[in-house]
Amino acid sequence: MTEATATRNPARPQPAGPIWLRYAAPLAFDPLAARMIPWFFGAAAILALAGLYVGFFVAPTDATQGEVYRVIFIHVPAAWMSMFIYLVMAGWAAIGLIFNTRLSAMMASALAPTGAMFTFLALWTGALWGKPTWGTWWVWDARLTSELILLFLYIGFIALQAAIEDPRRADRAGAVLAIVGVVNVPIIYFSVRWWNTLHQGASVNLTSAPKMATTMLLGMLIMAVACWMYSIAAALWRLRSIIAEREFGFDVEAP
Amino acid sequence: MSWGSAGEFFAMGGYGLYVWGSYGVTVLAILVEVLALRARRARSDAPGRGRP
User: Fold this and answer.
1) Which residues of B touch A58 (CB under 8 A)?
2) pLDDT of A191-234, one tens digit each?
3) Which residue ranges make up each domain of chain A?
4) Complex ipTM
């Protein structure tokens, strides 16, 4: 946004105040979001290319599973994102609920569809990996079931907000659902430790050395960051639409 | 990792359906999301939009 545009739109608020509150107003944040989106899409594209290169042309054939293990380079990142996005979504929803801030609630709404997409991909790619390796597309074990519940929580959040006419009431109702559903995320994460599951246990954790080849781990981590960058870009893009829809009447920049 | 040929790469040791079925649907899902975002943005930028 140029200085000329700013003076032509006296109704558009200029970012002001202490740095941590400067972008708290939806219309103040909108131009910043507009500038950020291309960078995150760019980062996602570059990292995805790098990650897929490592996954398909560097990482070797697996001794037990042959080539089918390569699904890991999308399955694990998608599953990590499905959980992480839910936590971030619930976090923004909680902030919106506690401090009555519109933009926080809008961000929660912006994250939900992307989170749902990754949850679906985790389940889909998991099924396609499970069929040749476990002999089944699906099993009602703790991990798979709780991940499916996560998908239902995302869809429920989106549907609940869509069903409520008043946007602020929709924000608050969705926030309560999102916060209550947070309990599911540690259940998914610890399910393979707490219960006897068909899904394998953790190969990667924070406290011990990974039980997988370095090149495989590298590919997985690069793809995880790629998915993260994509999620930010998509959520900010959706947020801009939400801001434009709800703060109508003001001139907002086209993408 | 060196693939013998393009054919071997696409065959994925006989698991081609599962591997490409996974990545294919991923690409599709991302495409759908991006197109939906573009469509939504076009609607919210529409000239008719304004105060009720």
Assistant:
1) 1
2) 988 998 889 888 777 777 777 889 999 999 999 999 999 999 99
3) 36-59+69-202+209-246
4) 0.89
Residue type, A237: W
A119, A150 in Cβ contact below 8 A? yes
Determine whether the interchain pair A124/B13 forms a contact, defined as Cβ–Cβ distance below 8 Å. Answer: no
Nearest to B44 among A58, A125, A244 (CB): A244
pTM recorded for the entire structure: 0.90
Tens-digit pLDDT profile for residues A20-58: 888 999 989 999 999 999 999 999 999 999 999 999 999
Contacts of B40 (CB under 8 A, 6+ apart): A238, A241
The span from the CA of A12 to the CA of A80, in Å, is: 38
Q: Answer whether A244 sits within 8 Å of B45, measured CB to CB.
A: yes
Long-range contacts of A248-252 (CB under 8 A, 24+ apart): A248/B49, A248/B50, A248/B51, A249/B50, A249/B51, A250/A9, A250/A11, A250/A12, A250/A27, A251/A9, A251/A11, A251/A12, A252/A27, A252/A30, A252/B45
The two tokens of residue A44 are 């996602």
- B10 shares contact with chain A (CB less than 8 Å): no
CA distance A249 to chain B (A): 4
Q: Is B24 on the interface with A (CB under 8 A)?
A: no
Burial string for A80-98 (b: 16+ CB within 10 Å, else e) reads: bbbbbbbebbbbbbbbbbe
What's the rounded Cα separation, in Å, for the pair B39 and A179? 30
d(CA B44, CA A97): 26
Q: Is B25 on the interface with A (CB under 8 A)?
A: yes
- How far apart CA A70 and CA A65 sit, in angstroms, is 9
Asked if A60 lies within 8 A of B1 by C-beta distance, the reply is yes
User: pLDDT tens digits for A121-174?
Assistant: 999 999 999 999 999 999 999 999 999 999 999 999 999 999 999 999 999 999
